[in-house]
Amino acid sequence: MTTYHVDATNGSDRNDGLSSFSAWKTLARATKKALKPGDRLLLSRGSSWAEPLRLNGQGTPSHPILLAPYGEGPRPKILVRDEAGISADRPISAWTIRGLEVAGEKPFDPYGHPPGKTAGIVFHQTERCAGLRIEDCLVHDVPGAGIALYAGKTASTVFAGWTIADCEVHHAGTGITTGGPWPAPKDATKLIEKFTISGCRVHDIVADGIVLSHCRDGVIERCVAWKTGVGRVKRTPVGIWFFMARRCTIQFCESFDNHTAGGKADGGGFDLDGGCIECVMQYNYSHDNDGAGYLICSYDPWNAPCLDCVTRYNLSINDGLANDYASILFWQADDCRTYNNTLITRSASPLKFTSDTKGNTFANNLFVVDSTHDIALVKSAFALDRNTFRNNAYYRTGGRARFEVQAEKFMDFASFSRRLRTEGEFEADPRLDSLSTIHVNPRPGSPLLGAGMKIASAGSRDLLGFDVPRGAVPAIGCSQRPAD
């Protein structure tokens, strides 16, 4: 187990690199050394290199290789042009990358511009790469991807047991992403597995904030995405989302002020999209997005269906600011469960359907239009008879609730309830602490308290950290704060 040092100011490539006094000078010299399990490659704080770093060597689970700073001062900085700042030409496993800064040589303005080639930390692999950790890194001013893992065409898992934690990506083409062969193979979700992305911040992004695909059995948690979709792209961006994913979760995240990248679709907070099976969105806060707060959909329901997904204990405030989106929007997704969400809009419907759907259950949700404008609380150009509505509450601050289902655009609550054969639902003032902040707890005497439907495997907590009552009738909405 050997430690090597690189110092752009005081080092020399004629040195052995074995101490801070005999450090190498260039990253090219560091790349030539094949590191072994337990080795450390340390970059001097305050140093800057206008060259990329290619990782060389493989660690083991018990003896990973560490790439990190040493000394005092600002983060070591890698400046790049037309390529990735940190990558690997060979198979790598068990690397920990910590505390570095990767940036483009020139400032990049994502607003109104398309993405480019220069990228941050990017790994293209076809052989197994297990135990990769990227921690506390700053990536910015790169027109391409900030942090990315791409699996090549192969029949086996490539990236496994990996973590991206406490990183920040800004002024980039895409924030944090994974991907694989396209069109995606039938078993695409096995290519990238068993992962955690936590505590990351992405903002001022041309296209997507955090978007993962070709993956399974992973979680995105306690991340924040804002000002994504501010550039120009043909595809449609979202703050935080999955596609081609199985048993993946987005939780305890916030996504806001996201846009459509010059298009007419998406620009929302969160999304479970095509190929998402048994995925979950829970305990998230979406607000002030152009698109939907929570999009549950499939771009190709035949080859990449969105099925058996759960959306629960989330909050949406003032989403759907453009293109007639909604707090929650369903498109070509079936057999999903949506319950105990609080959805408050001012210019769009809280719940909207843009396709014929079936097998979906909506229970214990609070739908609010906080406006004097006559906006439908539920809007669908399609029949909703093959879906189930139970114990939801509806309210419009500016007057009576209205619903749109197919040709009937001025349905009152009673007509809506009869048509869909709802049970346990009502229209009433929910009496919340706030309609404009995350503090959406029901006040004493609220009709939401004890008015929900018992749901098996409902989770143990709500958005704000209150316990979900076991065996008791839950409240409607994302807050389960006990009555005073």
Largest sheet: 26 strands, mixed
Instruction: Give the averaged pLDDT, no decimals.
Output: 96
Percentage of residues in strands = 35-45%
Count of separate DSSP helical elements: 2
Sequence stretches where pLDDT stays below 50 over 5 or more residues: none
Portion of residues in helices?
under 10%
Our Rg estimate from Cα atoms comes to 24 Å
- Report the end-to-end length measured between terminal Cα atoms: 60 Å
Instruction: Return the structural class.
Output: mainly beta
Query: Total number of β-strand segments?
Result: 44
* Approximate shape: elongated
Task: Summarize this structure briefly.
This protein has 484 residues and is mostly beta strands.
Give keywords.
484 residues, 26-stranded mixed beta sheet, 16-stranded parallel beta sheet, 39% strand, mainly beta, 2 helices
Could you walk me through the main structural features you see in this protein, from its secondary elements to its overall organization?
The protein is mainly β and 484 residues long. It is built from two helices and 44 strands. Strand 42 (403-405) and strand 43 (408-411) form a beta hairpin. The N and C termini lie far apart (60 Å). 55% of the residues are buried. The mean pLDDT is 96.
